[in-house]
């Protein structure tokens, strides 16, 4: 009973301190800014917003909370212990890195850098700074690097799960210039989750764990306590050769493999420390390889969000629209409307006006099979189905696909298309 009370008291104290941590709330604000920026891009491109940025922020917060609870249970069970000073160093390094690239907010970069810094400090055992830095250097030298690498692996396993569950839902359509000079459609998949972690930290007046964890170094002598480590995990990618759900599936599988490889490296480094720096290099280099692999794969495949001779390709479906009620899906092709073949947006609108009270569509699904859908059209819906079509050359704006820094979060995410001679109307941009 006393043990349960001790656990509950320490967990409650850590949760309270975590809620008071400004880093956690700054992370939520950062995520809200990112999703609002995405909404502004959608409005600029299509004169509509696909989803509410408040709803996306809420879903990201909830997903991060659930993932944080799961990772915390696993990390505590394994006995992965991080000194409080090392937590502060993780935040500092993360803040510096994110100034240059938003995707470097990932724990793999800051955590990998700390393990490499630990190796450097252990190679200089006689160097000891004075003042407040002395305790930080001592904590970093004594840190269980394997425990930190395990936490990074667990976090990426949780990230893979979140990508698989939420990435397709959060994907945002855009137009871009292809490598062949054409304007093609695609999806950006920029997702961030605030993840509150409860981890073990050394404590002079702490208690010993009632079980023998895998990473037990230091727990039996110095004791332990709980501390909150709020972090942000992120997934940034784009695709113009996959459907969002297919891209999410591929990316999640690779992240699971990355987490498994890093977990293996961490377990080996717990057995032999010289493998810890190798694990840190794996954490950083393999993460960069995942980014490179995705980009290379996109360049090696043909864009799918383009029209062809069969009709007009659907790039996205607006939530709550007639198209969603008709169960139209991205990647499908509208070949006929009210019996009239359509190959341009203008032809689509004319065919819809041919019968203002009713529409019947002939649609080709992803397998090339024909399906027929029909629905009454109401006065307040006009001629719009609520589908975003793949672009033609007559669009006003295309997205400027550049590496994103914090500074660019507050700048314009689009640029004028040099292929357009006059302003496109809302009717041409939204069918």
Explain what you see.
The protein is α+β, with helices and mostly antiparallel strands. 49% of the residues lie in helices and 19% in strands. It has 13 helices and 11 strands. It has helices at residues 2-19, 22-46, 53-78, 84-98, 107-122, 133-142, 145-170, 219-222, 244-271, 275-300, 322-325, 345-353, 426-429; strands spanning 172-177, 183-207, 224-239, 312-317, 333-337, 340-341, 358-364, 370-376, 387-389, 397-399, 414-416. Strands 4, 5, 6, 7, 8 and 9 form a 6-stranded antiparallel sheet that branches. A 3-stranded antiparallel sheet has the order 1-2-3, with helices on both faces. Strand 5 and strand 6 (340-341) form a beta hairpin. The termini are far apart. The relative contact order is 0.13. The model is unreliable at 412-431 (pLDDT under 50).
Quick tags:
single chain; six-stranded antiparallel β-sheet; three-stranded antiparallel β-sheet; 13 helices
Helix content percent band: 40-55%
- Percent strand: 15-25%
The number of distinct helices, counting runs of at least 4 residues, comes to 13
Quaternary state reads single chain
Given the C-alpha coordinates, what overall shape results?
Answer: elongated
- Main sheet specs: 6 strands, antiparallel
Give the CA-CA distance, first to last residue: 65 Å
N-to-C order of helices and strands: HHHHHHHEEHEHHEHEEHEEEEEH
Q: Could you say which structural class the secondary elements and strand pairing correspond to?
A: alpha+beta
Q: Which residues form runs of ≥5 with pLDDT under 50? A: 412-431
Number of strands: 11
Mean pLDDT: 81
Radius of gyration over C-alpha positions, nearest whole angstrom: 26 Å
């Amino acid at each position: 009973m006393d043990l349960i009370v001790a656990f509950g008291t320490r967990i409650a104290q850590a949760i309270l301190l975590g809620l008071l941590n400004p880093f956690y709330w700054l992370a939520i604000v950062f995520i809200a800014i990112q999703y609002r920026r995405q909404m502004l891009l959608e409005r600029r491109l299509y004169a509509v917003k696909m989803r509410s940025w408040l709803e996306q922020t809420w879903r990201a917060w909830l997903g991060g909370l659930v993932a944080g609870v799961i990772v915390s249970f696993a990390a505590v069970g394994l006995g992965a212990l991080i000194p409080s000073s090392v937590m502060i160093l993780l935040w500092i390094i993360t803040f510096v890195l994110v100034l240059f690239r938003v995707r470097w907010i990932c724990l793999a970069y800051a955590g990998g850098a700390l393990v490499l810094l630990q190796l450097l400090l252990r190679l200089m055992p006689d160097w000891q700074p004075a003042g407040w830095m002395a305790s930080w250097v001592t904590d970093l030298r004594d840190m269980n690097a394997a425990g930190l690498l395990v936490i990074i692996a667990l976090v990426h396993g949780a990230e893979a799960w979140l990508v698989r569950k939420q990435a397709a839902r959060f994907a945002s359509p855009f137009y871009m210039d292809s490598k062949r000079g054409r304007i093609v459609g695609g999806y950006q998949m920029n997702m961030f989750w605030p993840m509150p972690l409860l981890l073990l930290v050394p404590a002079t007046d702490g208690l010993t764990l009632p079980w023998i964890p895998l990473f037990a170094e230091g727990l039996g002598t110095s004791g332990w306590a709980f501390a909150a480590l709020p972090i942000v995990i992120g997934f940034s990618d784009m695709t113009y050769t996959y459907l969002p759900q297919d891209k999410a599936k591929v990316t999640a599988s690779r992240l699971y493999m990355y987490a498994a490889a890093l977990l293996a490296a961490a377990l080996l480094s717990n057995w032999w420390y010289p493998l810890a720096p190798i694990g840190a290099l794996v954490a950083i280099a393999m993460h960069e390889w995942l980014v490179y692999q995705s980009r290379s794969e996109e360049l090696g495949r043909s864009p799918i969000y383009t029209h062809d001779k069969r009709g007009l390709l659907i790039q996205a479906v607006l939530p709550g629209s007639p198209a969603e009620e008709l169960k139209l899906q991205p990647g499908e092709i509208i070949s006929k409307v009210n019996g009239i073949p359509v190959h341009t947006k203008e032809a689509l609108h004319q065919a819809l006006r041919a019968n203002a009270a009713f529409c019947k569509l002939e649609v080709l699904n992803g397998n090339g099979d024909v399906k027929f859908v029909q629905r009454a059209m109401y006065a307040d819906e006009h001629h719009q189905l609520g589908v975003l079509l793949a672009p033609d050359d007559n669009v006003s704006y295309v997205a400027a696909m550049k590496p994103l820094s914090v500074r660019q979060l507050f700048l314009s995410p689009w640029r004028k298309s040099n292929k357009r001679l006059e302003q496109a109307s809302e009717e041409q941009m939204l069918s």
